[in-house]
Amino acid sequence: MDEVVETLGKIEQNYKLFQQQQMTFVKALKLSRLEANDLVRPVSSINQVECYKDHHCYNSRDRHVLNMFISICNDLRNLCQKLEKVHPGDSVTNGLLEKCKVLLNDSNDFTDLRATYPHGVVNYLSLAEATDCYAGVVSLIPIVIDTMREWISYTNKHLLPNVSHGHATTKQETPISQTPPAVDLTVQTSISNKNTVKLQERECSKCKYEDPRLKKQAPWKTPGKHPY
Predict the structure, then answer these.
(1) List of residues 6+ apart from 1 with CB closer than 8 A
(2) CA distance 166 to 87
(3) CA 61 from chain center: how many Å?
(4) CA-to-CA dists, residue 167 to 1, 19, 160, 173, angstroms
(5) What is the tens place of the pLDDT at every residue in 58-70?
């Protein structure tokens, strides 16, 4: 899949360069149609563009831009073959892939194609050009690229394993125990006894109780002779 994404990225870069020369491309088609005495029918297939390049185009700059269009179409066609090898797919991906194959067929009639927002290729044409001659040919490549992007997005989301999601599930399956650690009963009893003694001492200090028998006893003296 990484190779497919990288290849499509390179094709998109080439298309951006080609798109910057759309006016030159349309002008080259106009001159070729005039040279071929083919001003009635619109530009409707890849074969027709290739025929103009090979037989009715004598300007090197025009020939170059027509060749750019054909090269990008060939690269997209080769990428279709790679998509088939990445994953067997399902009805959705197979339908998207079949759409690309049909559009890129050399003899397919793309006269009625119209690339819509966010693509502005049709808007760059005059009204007559967009209606009669060149709207289909300038719409072909962006529509195919969008369809391939949709294929990649759907395959990544629904058909290929999601490693990060599986890792997160594993963590959820082994939650950390929230049970508090067991406390030694002997230690707990000792602490309880100490607290009881301290409580008794506080109570005795409050009442200031003195044993009356202690008052009657003589004070204690060390052994030995003592004067009376």
Answers:
(1) 86, 152, 155, 156, 160
(2) 20
(3) 39
(4) 21, 43, 15, 10
(5) 999 999 999 999 9
Q: Looking up tokens 């349309």, which residue turns up?
A: 26
Global pTM value: 0.69
Residue 93 and residue 97: Cα distance in Å, rounded? 6
d(CA 228, CA 216): 19
Q: In this predicted model, what pLDDT tens digit does every residue of 90-141 receive, in sequence order?
A: 899 999 999 999 999 999 999 999 998 888 899 889 888 887 899 999 999 9
CB 23 within 8 A of CB 120: no
63: closest CA among 25, 98, 37, 94?
A: 25
Q: Cα dist. 160→9, 89, 152, 190 in Å? A: 20, 10, 10, 62
* Helical spans, DSSP H, in 155-184: 163-173
> Distance between CA 120 and CA 111 in Å, rounded?
17
Beta-carbon contacts of 93 under 8 Å, excluding residues fewer than 6 positions away, are 83, 87, 151, 154, 155, 159
Distance CA 161, CA 211 (A): 86
**C-alpha of 147 from chain center:** 17
Which is more confident, 209 or 132?
A: 132
pLDDT at residue 199 tops 60 = no
Residue closest to 155 by CA, chosen among 106, 71, 97, 195: 97
pLDDT attached to residue 219: 55
Name the residue with higher pLDDT: 190 or 30.
30
